[in-house]
């Protein structure tokens, strides 16, 4: 099975925890006409990591890097959820039953339904298991 | 191997000491007779020039301090007439009033000679292009290096500090083979060059750095050498001694202090007793042939140790080790002595963080609190918070082990800590004492 088409490039940006950092990132992406499809911030004491799915990851990467940001690509996968009560439970149960360990996750609910974005240890393995369980994985081409 | 002045540089130690003794004796006689300042000092100490009967009798003489120059601002203790002076330099005076130093033509010649010997000892000479990126002007760094480099027949590229992009263009276009600047400015040049898409190692002819005017460490040397593909040599001096004066030789094992120009002692800063070779203490220097502003047993406040064995390069003059801190830079955190250089040394061993750092000291309640801000290296960024926390804990752990005091560490974005073109100010002490 071609698992690669389900691997999505997320951009991850190291950011100090001080006012204006998110604005600086968002402004740079706006200038490059990069659209943010989903994003989350993870914070620790004094610093944070901004994670985002964008329509042009390479363009976003290059722009932010040129501005001095510490930025990396991370492979994530996206699982379609039902946008109704119990939707998350269905997917979470599948993942749990399949023994997939989630590093972190975030979700968005858009016009085509709800999506759960997952960062897992073994991407290929997870893709196979999720496919087998009958859940729907979104292809990379949906995002970029 | 090429020597600038083989007769002096390889002179047997015994002969050098006889020479030093004669120079010291005539200096003391001259000052006792012609300098009211030094005459009074010797009287207070109850010492007469006749008491100087051998070299070690230098210990009978009174010390001089920076404050002697400040208290006698601008030129009250000069021992040359206005007509004899050919130049002034003025020190930056970050702590209090600036100090003024004056030079006769002979003073400038000996300063230049000292540098000519040093630059030759690291293999520079005719055909080299030496980019002098120390500040030109009142600071001694720029003009001192300039004349030293010209003396050995090298071509000088007098860029001074600032306008870094242009410095890099000129380095490339004119084929600079050596650069003289502060180590932090060279790091800055390296970073700016990378941003410009220029690889110092591949795209320039640079192979030597003559770095000084601020403390740095052996690990920083390794980092600079590996990163930029050059040999980095330490240089030492202060305006009171003339300016940058003493460099390492190609062996990179400490600065050669030319015995015919300077007499070095390492003393215990508290007891003022002389220390053995290899022991760490306060550097005390007598400049033996200075005319306009003689400095006797001058306590610079730098901490170092001395090595008196003949150097593998063949030069017989003693060497002092890399400066390991300043008597007055020392931070006291919860009663423990901490030198910023120790922090730098510890950080250089951790590839996850960059070479720049900032120390912030505050008092929280009754306790001192030290925060060290470090830049997360580009290659070490992990998307996982846990990995980043791990890096931070590791840095805290390493610092605590080497300093014996608890340290908080903050990871900051690369390039976000202030860069300094002159002496770096890495400590912000917010304690109201």
Description:
- The complex is a heterodimer of chains A (about 140) and B (about 425).
- The longest helix of chain A is centred in the first third of the chain and has 11 residues, at about 20-30.
- The mean pLDDT of chain A is about 90.
- In chain A, about 30% of the residues lie in helices and about 35% in strands.
- Chain A starts with 7 loop residues before the first strand and ends in an 11-residue tail after the last helix.
- Chain A folds into two domains: about 5-75, VC0802-like (2-Layer Sandwich), CATH 3.30.2130; about 75-140, ACT domain (Alpha-Beta Plaits).
- Chain A has a six-stranded antiparallel beta sheet with strand order 2-3-1-4-6-5, with helices on both faces.
- The radius of gyration of chain A is 16 Å and the shape is globular.
- Chain A is of the alpha+beta class and about 140 residues long.
- Chain A has helices at about 20-30, 55-65, 85-95, 125-135; strands at about 10-15, 35-45, 45-55, 70-80, 100-110, 115-120.
- Chain A has four helices and six strands, in the order E-H-E-E-H-E-H-E-E-H.
- Chain B has about 425 residues and is an alpha/beta fold.
- Chain B has two domains: about 1-330, Rossmann fold (3-Layer(aba) Sandwich), CATH 3.40.50; about 330-430, 2-Layer Sandwich (GMP Synthetase, Chain A, domain 3), CATH 3.30.300.30.
- Helix content of chain B is about 30%, strand content about 25%.
- Chain B is built from twelve helices and 20 strands.
- Chain B has helices at about 5-10, 15-35, 35-45, 65-70, 105-120, 140-150, 165-175, 185-195, 200-205, 220-230, 340-350, 385-405, and strands spanning about 85-90, 100-105, 130, 155, 180, 210, 230-240, 245, 255, 260-265, 280-285, 300-305, 305, 320, 330-335, 335-340, 355-365, 365-375, 410, 425-430.
- Chain B has a six-stranded mixed beta sheet, with helices on both faces. A four-stranded mixed beta sheet of chain B has the order 19-18-17-20.
- In chain B, strand 18, helix 12 and strand 19 (about 410) form a beta-alpha-beta unit.
- In chain B, helix 5 (about 105-120) packs across helix 6 (about 140-150).
- Chain B is globular.
- The termini of chain B are far apart.
- The mean pLDDT of chain B is about 90.
- The chains are: A alpha+beta (about 140), B alpha/beta (about 425).
- The interface of A and B includes residues 14, 46, 49, 51 and 103 of A.
